[in-house]
Amino acid sequence: MQSEQAVKAHAMPDWPAIVAVVLGVTAFSVAQGVTYPLISLVLEARGVSSTMIGVNAVGFAMGLGAATLMLARLTQRFRANQLIIAGLIGCSLCLATFATFSSMFVWFLARFLLGFCASLIFMLSEAWLNVACPDRMRGRVSGIYGASICAGFAAGPLAIPLFGTDGGFGFALTAVYLALVAFATAMLMYSTRTVPEPSSTRDLFRFFRHAPMLIAMVFAFGFADIAAISAMPVYFVRTGHSEAFAAISVTVLALPTALAQPLIGYALDRLPRHSVAVGTAFVAASSYLAIPFLDTPALILCAFAMMGTASFSLYTCALTMLGENFRGGMLLAGSAAYALIYAVGSGAGSSLTGLIMEIGGPDAAPLSVGAALAVFAFAFLLGRRR
């Protein structure tokens, strides 16, 4: 049976909660967009080996995993809105730590805690968004949510050319920004009518059994997304393009993706949602498969932008369909499952694509990812018909 707050959410959106969620997830994506490149650049300037830089980055991933495993216990003891505010404050303190200390061990701990707090914000925000949003406008709100994530990731790295890598000013400024977002979120909490219900570890395993195609959708997104960010710039360089072209490709990937998500959300509210998901998967697959056969840089960048937009749209579809099909604690369990499977998919995308490129040559990378996305699209289409 649906809870009273879920019934109310289907009648009227909880706008203060939606605004708080969008603010929080944007802050999360800005923080991650800053820390990934900035920490690596700072450590590189200090003469730290690439191996130790990689080990330091593992701390963030460990924090993500720890938060996923502890989510059920935390939500049974604390309200979700309290955990989101605590996560924002925790992210702010971690960034302040980067600006204050230089010890590798301290940075590793801070990066672990940053991953833990950021993951809490991400998972709780997804569940709360679906609780606060009526189904008739779920796709559009999910599209705005996805656009905010993309915009945050794109805006985060701007702190590097603006404020440089010396003195920790980029970290400090981002810490202040997150603290302000935490304060604004706390103010919005007084007006909210909804809150995600607690989940359990049992719910997490139940979700994997009940929603295999949604899990596959998020895995495909993680695989294709990280392959585009990590492997495709290398592919462009190896196929004779300049490093500047490879760098521009990442920007071209991010901006259209952010702009397109509200349009995808509108389509999700007007068309059959499974059809939109299958369509975006086929577009992503076709774009990957077309890139090796294009010679003009403008056409390559257009295909690359279309591929990034369609790949991220898989996640917008999955988020919308999560709220459409699940209620109560299963919403939070689904958000945790999404975070976990995205980590698996992104790990597979970065490692397997690089290996395939080494074995089969540069063109094997986009062709293999495109083929994998095509298989997923056909499987999802057949699964829906059954």
UniProtKB/TrEMBL annotation:
CDD domains: MFS_YcaD_like (cd17477). The keyword Transmembrane helix applies. InterPro entries: MFS, MFS_dom, MFS_trans_sf, MFS_YcaD-like. It comes from the Bacteria. PROSITE patterns: MFS (PS50850). It holds the Pfam family MFS_1. Residues 17-386 form the Major facilitator superfamily (MFS) profile domain. Coiled coil: none annotated. Keywords: Membrane, Transmembrane, Transmembrane helix. The chain crosses the membrane at residues 49-71, 83-106, 112-131, 143-163, 169-190, 211-232, 244-268, 275-291, 297-318, 330-352, 364-383. PANTHER family: MFS TRANSPORTER, TRANSPORTER MFS SUPERFAMILY. This is MFS transporter. It comes from Mycoplana ramosa.
